[in-house]
Amino acid sequence: MTGTAPRPHVANIDFPAFYAPAFANDEDRAREFYEEITNRTAKIILHQAARMLWLSDRVDEVSRGRPALRILFFAIAAEAVAKLTDGFEGEGKSRAYVQHFFREICSDEHRSLLGRAFQSSAGQWLSPLDVVDFLYDVRCDVAHRGQYYDLNLPRPEVGETELFTSSAGDSLIAHLTASQLRQIVLEGAVLAARRLNP
User: Fold this and answer.
1) Are strands 118-120 and 163-167 parallel, antiparallel or unpaired?
2) Would residue 167 count as lying in a domain?
3) What global pTM score does this model have?
4) H or E segment at 165?
5) What domain range includes position 162?
């Protein structure tokens, strides 16, 4: 077939271009960073996180308004990055490593954003660690129970700025968008790769 664009494929990700949003959309800086990465594990971190985020983007194309499906991929990326960073070779400890990613690998700015992500109906903010646990529970709901429809996150592009969602029967006001969470994971992968690269 002539004249048709090739179908996107996870094997064809342009990694420097993909990471440009972590460098203020400066693709040249992203490419320079990517080319400076010589540590094999650091490179795997960048590749694996990009693949999971790329897949989350494709899921959003066919299930817009169902952020739980994207969160599944965000959690997989966070877990993989944390385990690779620590050199973990065993099985399990998924929740602990997702927590480790957000608590130890991500920046203070990321944790601050997580600390303003969800608010109880009584006005109390969830701590960053409570937010991570909540998001991990969402991941488990999707992966183990096929439940992907209860979570709502704001979508400013359609005028939704905050939404009610539920957590074990409690109502929460969501202030974090899926795009913001994606950006945190993207930038966290960059921080992890920097940590491992000599």
Assistant:
1) unpaired
2) yes
3) 0.90
4) strand 163-167
5) 13-196
